[in-house]
Every structure is written in structure tokens, then in C-alpha cells.
Amino acid sequence: MTNRGNADLDATAGLIRRDTNLLLSARFFMSASQSLSSVALPLALIHAGFGPSGIGAVLATMILAGLFEMILVGGYADRGHLRVFLVSFPFTSVVCAIPFLTGADPIWLAVAAVVGGYGGGQGATSGGTGPYQPAEYAWVGRNYPNRDRNRIIGVFSAISVAGVVLGSIFAIEAGQLASLLGLGSGTGDQARAMMLVVAVLAVVPTAIGLIVKEPEHIAAPPSTGRSLRHQLDKWRELLIPTHSRKVLYRLSVVGGLNGLAVGCYGQFVTVWLILHFHASASTIGLLNLVMAAACVAVDLSCSRLARKLGLIQAVIVTRVVQSLLIIVISFSPNLLFAEVFLLIRMVAQRLNLPLRDSYSIARAAENEKARVSALTAISNQGGMAVSSEASGVMIARIGYAIPFCISAVLQLASALLFYAYFAREPPPEEEAATTQGASTPVSTEPVAAGAA
Q1: Separation in Å, CA 391 to CA 8, 26, 266, 403
Q2: Which CB contacts under 8 angstroms, 24+ apart, belong to 399-406?
Q3: pLDDT at 125
Q4: What is the pLDDT of residue 251?
Q5: Model confidence at 2, in pLDDT bands (50, 70, 90)?
Q6: What percent of the chain lies above the pLDDT cut of 70?
């Protein structure tokens, strides 16, 4: 290989390393913002007079809005458009914090919650980046080989949890924040102080998004006409993958079931702790902090679990454990009991999430990874939207236990269906190992050394 060829490879590796570090930094601060908002938003809505059914309606609408955003992300990210999403979503979180800071009417708080796409009351599980995550993971899938995919996505997930640690610290100190800002000590004042920090944290990923280099654009297919049919074909080509439809269908069915489960349970964890056990913002923040601290190491070890059990088996086992623990949690006699088993379940969940996402990316065609990731997430979000509203009504009438148990049954069903669909469809790296008759050694370094 010529010296110029080596230089080009070094330059490419350096750019991947730089952009990986930038994306990890953006994810850290956006995750911190989302985590803190998952505590602040329920407190703000409760203070504004929203009950369980009202909060359920807001959360369901938030999810439906996220569906539209993910459709756009999936279609355009596969054609190289990433920066616009990296900038616009955190910037929206900044702007939509204003109604919470100014004490706007409840209807405007609901609108701001929907447009801002905040954490949704899921506590430590809300450590995420927003609807552009499919684009982020597709970028990983294109720039790292299969043997490194589980580990790199595990690093991204661990950084999310590290962001949750920061957000949780701010939640613990909500009272001090309110005092420092000259506000009162009430619930509404603490929520307002936390939303200010949510906005400040979201400014950082907004700025980082302006620095990341736009990926190479993939040309859209040439237009063959301007009729309505041709325009519909053009949009279908943009949004719907053609080579990954079978795996997309199966992942969407499994994701929809899991979304129904999450909507019955995950969306109401923080609300449940506040209303059922009278937990304060500091208590919830401390719980999130402990969970996040425990889960950083868990995220970094998920690739080891996949190597030991196999990726598909690891996804199934961790999801079954999650479903069974929901039943235990739903009958918690006191706050301490609930916190202990929430922590155990969180460990299982944090093992499951990056492995599930990694499998989705692995099975998708090369230029359809973002669309498969986004459309799979849409099925999950759609299920959440349906069950969040229904669960909020049930909780208002009969309490939390039955909706939580329904969640457990649905999540167990999704695990069994995942096995039925994919038990004989391992990811490429495991297929290669089976073909060779021996395990393929797993690289301990990313393509660009030091990228993580």
C-alpha cells in the first residue's frame, strides 16, 4: 500500500475517532438532561394539577410526537443527514423549558412537554439522547466491524448511564438549586429549578452537533416523474427499507409488545414513587444515582454476556428477568423494598438495551440500518403510547398493581416471541464463527484506536 494510501487510512481513522468522541460527549450531556427532566416533568405536572390519567395522556402524546420524529430520522440518516438531528433535538429541549421556568398555564406545560420530548417519568431508564439515537447507532454500524459492534454500542449505553449520574446529582440537590436561584422550597419551585438545569445541559449537545462532520451523503434514487404516484414512491423509498423488510416486521412485532409493556409500567415509575410512597425529588434522584452508578459497569460488560450466552440468548434471558421482577416490584410493601428490586431490574434492563439495539443493527442491510432502528423504535413507541393512556386510566381507578402485572405478562410474551422469531438467525459474527467451526476472536480495539 502506498504512503498516500496509509495516510488516507490514518486520516479516516482519526476522523472516526474524533467524531466518536464528540458523539459520546453529546450523548453524556443529553442523557443528563433527559434524566433530570424525567424527575422534573412529573413533579411539574403534578404541581400544575395533573392526575395519573392526565399525565398518561401527556406521555402518550409525547410518544406519538416522537414517532413522527423517528420516521424522519430513519429515512434521512441512511442518506447521510445526521447533523441536523444532532442540533435540532437538544435545541428544542432548551426552548421548551421556557414555559416551565415562567410558570405558564397547564395547557402550555403539556405542549412544551410534548414538543420538548423530555424523559417521560422513567427515572434512570430515560438516559437517552432522543429520537436521533437510530442515526447514531447506524453511524456505529457503518464505521465499526461486526466484531466490535456490541462493545461500541455498550460504551454508548454506558455513557448514557454516566449522564444519568450527573442528572441524578442535580435532582438530589433540587432543594439547594431552588434556594440558590432565590425560589421557594415547594415542589413547583424545585421542578422549575431542575428544568433550568435541563435547558443548560441541553445547550452542550446542541453546540457539539455543529462540530460533528456530516457523513458522506448517499444519493437519493432519481425521480421518474412528478405525479402523485411517483412522489409516493419516492417517499416510500426514502422511509421504508426494501432489503430488510422481514427482519423489520419481526422486530416491530416484538417491539410493539414490549412497548405495550413499558407503557403500562415504565412511564409511571416516578409517578408511582411520588404518589404511592410520597418520595421526594431528592429521594428519586438518589435512587437514580445508585442505579446509574451500578449500571455503568453493566453496560460495559454487555458484550461479554453476549459472547458467553450468545446475543439472542442474552436478550431473551435479560428480558425474562425484567418481566418477573415487575411482579415483585408491583407488590412492594415499602419504599426500600421497591428501591432494591428496581435496582436489580435496572441491571437486567441495562444489559438488555444495548444488546437488543446491536442485534437490530446487525440484521439490517448496510444502507438501511437507521431506518430499521428507527422503525423498530416506532413500533415500541406506538405500543407505549397506547398503553400509557390506558394504564393511566386504570391506575386512577384501581391502583398500580394490575397495570404493572399486565406489563410483566406482555414483556414475557415479547421475550418468547423474540425467541420464536430469531433463535435460528444469529448475528453475522456468530454465523461466521459457526461456519468456521470455531469462535472468531473478538477484537479488543475499535477501528479507530481510542475512539471509546
Answers
A1: 55, 33, 11, 6
A2: 400/268, 400/272, 400/276, 400/330, 401/330, 401/331, 403/264, 403/265, 403/268, 404/264, 404/265, 404/326, 404/327, 404/329, 404/330, 405/326, 405/327, 405/330, 406/261, 406/264
A3: 41
A4: 93
A5: low
A6: 80
Tell me how far CA of residue 343 lies from CA of 88, 250, 286, 298, in angstroms: 33, 30, 12, 12
Residues 6+ apart with CB under 8 A from 132: 73, 77, 82, 85, 86, 89
Separation CA 97–CA 109 (nearest Å): 9
The residue among 115, 105, 100 whose CA lies nearest residue 42 is 100
Radius of gyration of the chain (CA): 22
CA 130 to CA 66: how far, in whole Å? 8
Sequence-ordered list of residues with C-beta below 8 angstroms from that of 57, at least 6 positions apart, any chain: 389, 392
Q: What is the DSSP letter of 223?
A: P
Span 186-211, pLDDT tens digits: 778 888 888 999 999 999 988 988 88
Residue 443's nearest CA partner among 148, 210, 245 is 148
Q: Which residue has the cell 384501581?
A: 398
User: What's the confidence (pLDDT) of residue 440?
Assistant: 45
pLDDT in tens, 358-399: 888 888 887 777 778 777 877 887 788 788 778 878 888 888
The full set of domain ranges for the chain reads 13-211+242-426
Q: Report d(CA 415, CA 409) in Å as an integer.
A: 10
Rounded CA-CA distance 209/225 in Å is 35
Output the pLDDT for position 229.
Answer: 59
Farthest-apart Cα atoms in the chain, separation: 73
Helices marked H in 240-310? 245-265, 269-277, 281-300, 302-309
Give the start-end residues of each E strand in 285-369: none
Contact present, 285 and 168 (Cβ < 8 Å)? yes
Pick the CATH number of 13-211+242-426 from 1.20.1250.20, 3.40.30.10, 3.40.630.10, 3.30.2290.10: 1.20.1250.20
Of 130, 152, 151, nearest to 139 by C-alpha is 152
Q: Which three cell numbers stand for residue 150?
A: 456490541
Which residues neighbour 430 within 8 Å (Cβ) at sequence distance 6 or greater? 310, 311
With 50 as the cut, is the pLDDT of residue 63 above it?
Answer: yes
Say how far apart CA 363 and CA 327 lie, in whole Å: 32
For the entire predicted model, the pTM comes to: 0.66
